[in-house]
Amino acid sequence: MTILEAVASRTRVVIAGGGVLGTMHAVAARRRGFEVVQLDREAEARGASVRNFGLVWVSGRKAGPELDLALRARALWSELGTKVPGLGFRAAGSLTLAAGDAELALVKEACTLPDAERRGFELLDPAAVRAVNPALRGDFAGGLLGRADAIVEPRQVLPALRGYLAGDGYEWRPGREVTEVARNAVRDHLGAWHRGDLVVLCPGAAHTGAAGRYLAGGALRRVRLQMMQTGPLAERVTTALADGDSLRYYPAYDLPGRAQLGPQPAVAARARAQLLLVQRADGGLTIGDTHEYAEPFAFDLDEDAYDHLRARAEALLGRPIPRVRRRWAGVYSEVNPDAPGAAGHALYHRAELEPGVVLVTGPGGRGMTCSPAIAEETFG
Ligand SMILES: Cc1cc2nc3c(=O)[nH]c(=O)nc-3n(C[C@H](O)[C@H](O)[C@H](O)COP(=O)(O)OP(=O)(O)OC[C@H]3O[C@@H](n4cnc5c(N)ncnc54)[C@H](O)[C@@H]3O)c2cc1C
């Protein structure tokens, strides 16, 4: 019997992990009428799910299964957004801004992709960019509008979803670290067993904890990113923003024109930086990001990368950004493309650890976006 067949005839689901993957599994399980107990080792989730941009980012996904998964998830976010206003879901779309001829040529190429319409792509000249997003008063050669992209509020999403689930059939138990896995059960650090017809472990980037011995083969790796947030900007930034460096990283733009892009500035290349900028509901700007792959990760924050990102944001907005109020780093888990014998193309990692216990993690930088659809795939 498959996991899905087993759970379909049963009722109690234990979820370990209070990040967006665990919480979307709780939503999917409750949607099927299952009783749910959700544990987290912290008093409140503190992992990647509260440290991200809140971007539901469809535009840059690889054609095929990755784009399909992101679009299914986008539809689920939109549906949840109408039921749970606290998610702050906005179908804001995005603008990827081209700095010069080579970036603009690549953006034009992206608009001719066979699936450009599904991504909501449209090529805009500078005047049209400003008509869509009047806050952009800086210099750019044009922009790629990605109508399918959306925004949620990462600091609100998890409590809002738990509030939506609260009541009969859903129990949130923070401060419980899972330390042991057995058939249809997990044990927490206080020694209590939590039994379910299905147990779903969503421990994020905790690769050495309870799931550690099942991950010893190196199927997953971790990635560390730097972020910052400003005080409120007294003007609406109507879309999410990306700079031309994002064209180097997202798989959708792996097109012939990418080879024509000049080198990144040294500081950006070192930090593997791309500018992503999202205005929060309170007007603040969430700005990132960088990518660090080699462990041990830095324990401190690199100011040079922040200087670069700030300069990029100010160049696009055409004015100084408000004072930075918060800085942080976050770590996500992703399928390791370099693992020997690993399915490097997998969009995330799902494995049955013991009968009735399934591990779901490793969605990488698309985890916030794809989480509702990944949870649906667990339950079928
Ligand atoms: C800086 C940054 C920016 C990002 N931006 C975006 C974005 O804009 N859009 C997007 O789609 N994706 C983005 N991502 C990726 C996305 O945030 C992650 O893929 C996603 O949040 C992963 O969710 P998760 O629930 O698996 O992990 P987490 O959010 O890390 O949650 C895991 C939870 O499990 C708990 N836990 C771990 N071990 C145990 C245990 N043994 N027992 C009990 N609880 C345990 C932890 O306390 C934690 O709360 C970003 C990631 C980072 C770091």
How many strand units?
A: 19
Strand count, sense and barrel status of the largest sheet are: 8 strands, mixed
- What structural category arises from helix and sheet content? alpha/beta
End-to-end Cα distance, whole Å, is: 14 Å
Q: Estimate what percentage of residues fall within beta strands.
A: 25-35%
Order of helices and strands: HEHEHEHEHEHEEHEEEEEEEHHEEHEEEH
Describe the structure.
- An 8-stranded mixed beta sheet has the order 5-6-4-14-15-16-13-17.
- It is globular.
- Helix 2 (20-31) packs parallel to helix 7 (154-165), helix 2 (20-31) runs parallel beside helix 11 (367-379) and helix 4 packs across helix 11.
- The chain has 11 helices and 19 strands.
- The protein has helices at 3-8, 20-31, 48-51, 65-83, 101-110, 126-132, 154-165, 246-249, 266-271, 303-317, 367-379; strands at residues 12-16, 35-40, 55-56, 94-98, 121-124, 142-146, 150-151, 170-174, 178-182, 185-188, 193-195, 198-201, 220-230, 240-242, 276-279, 285-288, 324-335, 349-354, 357-361.
- It starts with a helix and ends with a helix.
- With 380 residues, the protein is of the alpha/beta class.
- Flavin-adenine dinucleotide binds at residues 16-22, 39-42, 45-49, 51-55, 57, 177-178, 202-206, 209-210, 225, 227, 288-289, 330-332, 361, 363, 365-369.
Brief synopsis:
The protein is built from 11 helices and 19 strands.
List keywords for this structure.
alpha/beta, 19 strands, 380 residues, 28% helix
Task: Annotate the secondary structure layout.
Elements: H1 3-8, E1 12-16, H2 20-31, E2 35-40, H3 48-51, E3 55-56, H4 65-83, E4 94-98, H5 101-110, E5 121-124, H6 126-132, E6 142-146, E7 150-151, H7 154-165, E8 170-174, E9 178-182, E10 185-188, E11 193-195, E12 198-201, E13 220-230, E14 240-242, H8 246-249, H9 266-271, E15 276-279, E16 285-288, H10 303-317, E17 324-335, E18 349-354, E19 357-361, H11 367-379
Parallel strand pairs: 1-2, 1-12, 2-8, 4-14, 12-19
Antiparallel strand pairs: 3-7, 4-6, 5-6, 9-10, 10-11, 13-16, 13-17, 14-15, 15-16, 18-19
Bound molecules: flavin-adenine dinucleotide.
